Amino acid sequence: MRFLDPTNDYAFRKTFGDERKKEILISFLNSVLERTGESQIVEVHLLNPYQAPHMLGTKESLLDIRCRDQAGREYIVEMQVLKRKYFDKRVLYYASKAYSSQLLEGENYGALNSVIFLGILNFKFTAEDHWLSAHRIASVKTNEHKLKDFEFTFVELPKFTKTEQELSTVAEKWVYFLKHAKELEVIPETIVEEAIKEAFQILNQGTWSEAQLGAYEERKKAVMDATASYEAALDDGEQRGHAKGLVEGIAQGIAQGIAQGVEQGREKERKAIALEMLQKGCDVSFVHQFTSISLEELKSMSQQTSEFPSHLT
Q: Could you tell me which of 48, 39, 53, 43 has the C-alpha nearest to residue 22?
């Protein structure tokens, strides 16, 4: 028996994103996120369930696993093999977008539920020695956890060094599965949990169709190509420096253009508001305080519009 690599994003989605085998995802989340008692996950609704690709040659990255538990908490589970620049910002972007998208038009803020991001990383990301780290928004001085709706947990596979004989918790067994399944030919005897054994069975290469194996190999090749491109860029220091300068210059120009456009839009909006206020008979000094447009410009605007009352001039 040979098991495929669960860190392959296609295999990862097939293992943890199957609507018919949600007990696998539930076991994984409860163990790694240390959910017990009242906070334990007993049911999940997959927001983007696994679907086989229509084309084997697709280069598009598969979406993360997103689900919602019985309490309304939303989870984003991502398998990240390659270390990407701005990965930290992308994590924050994903979480904040998932949070804000919960609120429908007309609903109040009480409808918002927690968002938990779980990243399984095949590289070192934090300064912590342990393979598992949890991050929350807390007070710098008192460590008060007042802003509770965001949680970030990272599993850093390179930091996990336990052998099969050293496995003691369900979380450790799951991480061992993620890191070593591709090297094994049988399910380790120490793993007795049905959810993990089921995950091994899903990755049994002998049960995969030709189309599924083709999709798996395509994703594997895409990662290898990306890694090779990255290493080639690092080998050529001069080209890297030139490319970096070019990219930074383009990025700076785009940022300046965006900032200028935003400011121009704000100025246009302020003038439109001021014009409407003047037309409705508001005092110039009051409009000045409200819009921050200079008194001179406001008086000029009032003089150029015959519709304004005479007391404005």
A: 43
Cβ–Cβ under 8 Å, residues 106 and 140:
no
**pLDDT score for 265:** 58
Cβ(76)–Cβ(68) below 8 Å: no
* The predicted structure's pLDDT at residue 313: 40
Cβ neighbours for 148, distance < 8 A, ≥ 6 positions apart: 114, 136, 137
The pLDDT, as a whole number, for residue 312 is 41
Say whether 190 sits in a helix, a strand or coil: coil
DSSP state of 204: B
Question: For the chain, which residues score pLDDT lower than 50?
Answer: 53-62, 306-313
Confidence (pLDDT) at 199: 97
Contact at 8 Å (CB) between 291 and 270?
yes
Q: Which amino acid is at 31?
A: S
d(CA 303, CA 311): 11
Residue 65: exposure state from Cβ atoms within 10 A (0-12, 13-18, ≥19):
buried
What pLDDT score does 55 carry?
34
According to DSSP H, which parts of the chain are helical?
9-16, 22-32, 87-100, 170-180, 194-202, 210-235, 237-279, 284-291, 295-303
What pLDDT was estimated at residue 56? 41
CA distance 291 to 270: 6
Partners of 65 in the β-ladder: 77
Taking the C-alpha atoms of residue 137 and residue 204, their distance in angstroms, rounded to an integer, is 40
pLDDT at site 61: 45
59, burial (CB in 10 Å: exposed 0-12, middle 13-18, buried 19+): exposed
